[in-house]
Amino acid sequence: MAIHISQVWTSLAELLALTTDLNKKNVAALDRGRAACALKQVAIDAFNPIISRIAAHVNSVAAGDTTKLITSGFPMARRAEPYNSLAAPSTKGYHYTGHENKVLFRWERVPGALVYVVEGNATPDVGREAWQRVAITSRPKAVVDRTADGRIIAYRVRAIGSKLQGPASQVTMPKAA
Questions:
Q1: How many helices and strands (H and E) does the chain possess?
Q2: What does the alpha-carbon distance between residue 152 and residue 145 come to, in Å, rounded to a whole number?
């Protein structure tokens, strides 16, 4: 659907008046008063449709020409670069909780990770097949068991992205209380 120029442009005086009003209301709302913030939101609601129509018009007139889009004065959105690898999370250690045999296992966030898989192993000397999934979380922490049947459990964590999986962190074990 083509947008006609008469639907896009308001008079320059009207646009200037809306901009001035919005600037004044931004300054008035700096003290975070409820009435001032509400008036600022009214000014934003009046300003946004006009700017959106102008941006849509510029986009339709430019028809994909990057030179026209760049010189329009509107900020350009960049395409996100896909992650081609995920690093191993570096562990921060354990913090004791108020619950018996439970500790909070923490690690650093990994850029590009959507979730983290925490794996536990009651016999860390045995190979890869002994590791079992203990928790899946989107946050860089998880509450895990400190002991199970008197055995010390070793833990590690790995980052999972949208299309790839990172390596496991170093194996860590909570200390006995």
A1: 4, 9
A2: 9
**Count of CB atoms within 10 A of residue 169's CB?**
22
Single-letter amino acid, residue 38: A
Strand 147-148 and strand 141-145: the pairing is: unpaired
Q: Which residue has the higher pLDDT, 70 or 150?
A: 70
The span from the CA of 153 to the CA of 155, in Å, is 7
User: Roughly how many angstroms between the first and final C-alpha of the chain, as a whole number?
Assistant: 69
Residue owning tokens 């191993």:
88
CB 2 within 8 A of CB 60: yes
Q: How far apart are CA 96 and CA 100, in angstroms?
A: 9
Only one residue has tokens 């008079």, namely: 11
Residues facing residue 109 across a β-bridge: none
Return the percent helix, strand and coil in the chain, to nearest 5: 35, 25, 40
Q: What is the pLDDT of residues 59-112, one digit of tens each?
A: 788 887 878 877 877 777 777 777 888 999 998 888 778 887 788 889 999 998
